[in-house]
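Long-time lurker. I teach an intro course on protein structure, and each term I like to show students one example going from raw sequence to a predicted 3D structure in token notation. This year I'd like something fresh instead of my usual example. Would anyone be willing to generate the tokens for the chain below so I can use it in lecture? Attribution to the forum is fine with me.
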Amino acid sequence: MKKENRPGAAAPSRLALPTRRRKAPGLRRIILMAKYSQAQVRYRRGYPLRACGVCPMYRKAGGNVFGTCTDVTGQITPYGLCDIFAQLRNPYGHRATPQHRKAIEDIYDHAHGYSSR
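-- Reply from a regular --
Happy to contribute to a lecture. Here you go:
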């Protein structure tokens, strides 16, 4: 079984992953889907522009603060981030350039004491 790699994401270890069965819509075969643990994908606090809340794999669960992820087990906060994060595409384009995004992340890191400046 091979799980697709998302661009820019480090491939986590695929040993002894829990699996679940799901019938693919319109197909007569059953697909085995693996879910990663939060430790395997280094789940952590996200950034303002990179967080689970703007990932297509994130699913909001009712009125609860936490949601779920299609690829990661456990409760997921919309403010988290992991190594398999994939940002939703904005149909109107992005106003922030990669340099702007990097500057915002550096400011965020510095404000939270993560940087070594």
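Some talking points for your students: Confidence is low (pLDDT under 50) at residues 1-9, 13-18. The radius of gyration is 16 Å.
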